[in-house]
């Protein structure tokens, strides 16, 4: 029995993804655990492993977008008959059940360059093709179909737009005669629309010449005249141009979108850490033989997880239609890499024992630095902790990892003086910085959440039970 290959879901807000690259060709052999395909989403690019051994059959081509959970291929075990044609099993692509009037469909329908197959007056086209036609302002029904079963695909819409024979709308610029449009990712098309960049004039550098979001950004930043002037100025000043990495661009876009879409506010609070320091030192000594070394960040993650149990609004997400209260408490931990920031997630952090949670956070941090994080390690975070205390920072404003409702910034541990009656006593204090979404909760409940975190860290034995 074949194993279905799904378009995996990476994160709660993912609505579509693109097969950026197949690592195993159609008809090729794969072993369970080998790299199978590369997924591109709005937020991240991920490599996906094969879940079975056998012959791979593609149902989706490179650059085509699908929804999470859609079947994009099959893996057939040895000895099993493989169908001669690739059937697209995703519900969004399936033809409607034939009716009496629709049954006599021409056998020749679906030949490359032929008119699109019609059933009951309906022209079959992929969701990606319809979306692209809308963006380019062309009539999808005028495209010649080259897809399976006489279906119009993205390439057909791009060919139609490049031909200059499309009606139903105009693009921002008329392509030169004979111009050929390159395939493009949904992320690139969305960005091109926002920046008013003509995709027909962009050269793709992605797999198979596909236009990526980096290509669109480059075209927007360097139109011909502006590019020449910038190059001359750069050369005169002796400056160096350093292209953004893919991760850097992803981080920039996500942070910008987060600030644009949320009502974010930040508050600080000091926490007496004397008992927490003692507890951490005791645990380091006690668990040394097991190779587990808890950090102050671990204590904060555990305190946040317990506080989220008492303050469920902070463990929720705002949408246009409702407030989503998450059942699980999954705390993301920001890990700084040379190329940018990544946030693996400690799943069910409130339910894990302290030792198990410390071991898991250490595993995630190590995997992040070694580029060995799995897809599941980055999914379904409901709150985030970000630490800059190791750099001597006393206070900062962390930006929420959308669609979460809050993020806690951890600052440095510093020496201060508190008074025991008339006697000055040395104290160790840490300031935490909470940024929260004011659409989800007001200042008072946000402060109450922070007070609970403070109370747990000032009486840290409660983190062990």
Provide key terms for this protein.
Chloramphenicol Acetyltransferase; 3 domains; 6-stranded mixed beta sheet; single chain; OB fold (Dihydrolipoamide Acetyltransferase, E2P); 10 helices; 4-stranded antiparallel beta sheet; alpha+beta; 465 residues
CATH-defined topology of the largest domain? Chloramphenicol Acetyltransferase
Number of helices: 10
Helix proportion: 25-40%
CATH classification class of the largest domain: Alpha Beta
> Number of folding domains?
3
Q: What share of residues are in beta strands?
A: 15-25%
Secondary-structure topology with pairs:
Elements: E1 3-6, E2 17-22, E3 29-30, E4 35-40, E5 45-49, E6 54-58, E7 65-66, E8 71-76, E9 114-115, E10 118-119, E11 122-123, H1 127-136, E12 144-145, H2 154-163, H3 186-195, H4 213-221, H5 224-237, H6 246-261, E13 264-272, H7 274-286, H8 296-310, E14 316-318, E15 323-325, E16 331-333, E17 335-337, E18 340-342, E19 345-346, H9 354-369, E20 383-387, E21 406-420, E22 423-437, H10 443-458
Parallel strand pairs: 16-20, 20-21
Antiparallel strand pairs: 1-8, 2-4, 2-7, 3-6, 4-5, 6-8, 9-12, 10-11, 13-22, 14-15, 16-19, 17-18, 21-22
Helix pairs in contact: 1-2, 3-4, 8-10
What's a concise summary of this model?
The chain is α+β, with helices and mostly antiparallel strands.
Any overview of this molecule?
The chain is of the alpha+beta class and 465 residues long. It folds into 3 domains: 89 residues, OB fold (Dihydrolipoamide Acetyltransferase, E2P) (Beta Barrel); 104 residues, Irregular (Dihydrolipoamide Transferase); 213 residues, 2-Layer Sandwich (Chloramphenicol Acetyltransferase). Helix content is 28%, strand content 23%. It has a 6-stranded mixed β-sheet. A 4-stranded antiparallel β-sheet has the order 1-8-6-3, with no helix packed on it. Helix 3 packs parallel to helix 4 and helix 8 crosses helix 10. The chain is globular, with a radius of gyration of 27 Å. The chain starts with a strand and ends in a 7-residue tail after the last helix. 36% of the residues are buried.
């Amino acid at each position: 029995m074949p194993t279905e290959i799904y378009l995996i879901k990476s994160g709660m807000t993912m609505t579509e993804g693109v097969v950026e690259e197949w690592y195993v060709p159609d008809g090729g052999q794969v072993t369970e655990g080998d790299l199978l395909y590369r997924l591109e989403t709005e937020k991240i690019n991920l490599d996906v492993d094969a879940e079975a051994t056998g012959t791979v059959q593609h149902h989706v081509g490179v650059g085509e977008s699908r929804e999470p959970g859609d079947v994009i291929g099959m893996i057939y075990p040895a000895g099993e008959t493989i169908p001669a044609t690739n059937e697209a099993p995703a519900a969004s692509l399936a033809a409607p059940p034939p009716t009496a009037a629709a049954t006599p469909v021409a056998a020749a329908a679906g030949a490359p360059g032929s008119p699109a197959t019609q059933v009951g007056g309906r022209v079959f086209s992929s969701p990606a093709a319809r979306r692209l036609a809308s963006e380019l302002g062309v009539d999808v029904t005028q495209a010649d179909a080259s897809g399976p079963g006489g279906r119009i695909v993205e390439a057909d819409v791009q060919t139609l737009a490049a031909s200059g024979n499309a009606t139903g709308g105009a693009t921002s610029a008329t392509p030169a005669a004979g111009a050929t449009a390159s395939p493009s990712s949904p992320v690139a098309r969305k960005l091109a629309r926002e920046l008013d960049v003509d995709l027909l004039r962009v050269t793709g550098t992605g797999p198979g010449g596909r236009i990526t979001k980096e290509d669109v950004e480059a075209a927007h930043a360097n139109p011909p005249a502006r590019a020449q002037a910038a190059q001359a100025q750069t050369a005169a000043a002796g400056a160096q141009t350093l292209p953004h990495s893919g991760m850097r661009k992803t981080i920039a876009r996500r942070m910008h979108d987060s600030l644009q879409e949320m009502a974010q506010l930040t508050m600080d609070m000091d926490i007496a850490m004397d008992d927490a320091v003692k507890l951490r030192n005791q645990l380091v000594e006690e668990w040394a033989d097991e190779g587990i070394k808890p950090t102050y960040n671990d204590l904060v993650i555990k305190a946040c997880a317990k506080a989220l149990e008492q303050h469920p609004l902070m463990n929720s997400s705002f949408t246009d239609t409702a407030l989503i209260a998450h059942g699980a408490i999954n705390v993301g931990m920001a890990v700084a890499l040379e190329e940018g920031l990544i946030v693996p997630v400690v799943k069910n952090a409130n339910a894990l024992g302290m030792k198990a949670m410390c071991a898991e956070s250490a595993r995630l941090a190590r995997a992040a630095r070694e580029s060995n994080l799995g897809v599941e390690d980055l999914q379904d975070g409901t709150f985030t902790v970000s630490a800059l205390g190791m750099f001597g920072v006393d206070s900062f404003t962390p930006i929420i990892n959308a669609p979460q409702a809050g993020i806690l910034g951890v600052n440095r541990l510093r020496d201060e003086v508190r008074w025991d009656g008339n006697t000055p006593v040395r104290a160790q204090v840490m300031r935490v910085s909470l940024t929260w979404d004011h659409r989800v909760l007001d200042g008072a409940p946000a402060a109450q959440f922070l007070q609970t975190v403070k109370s747990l860290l000032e009486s840290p034995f409660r983190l062990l039970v």
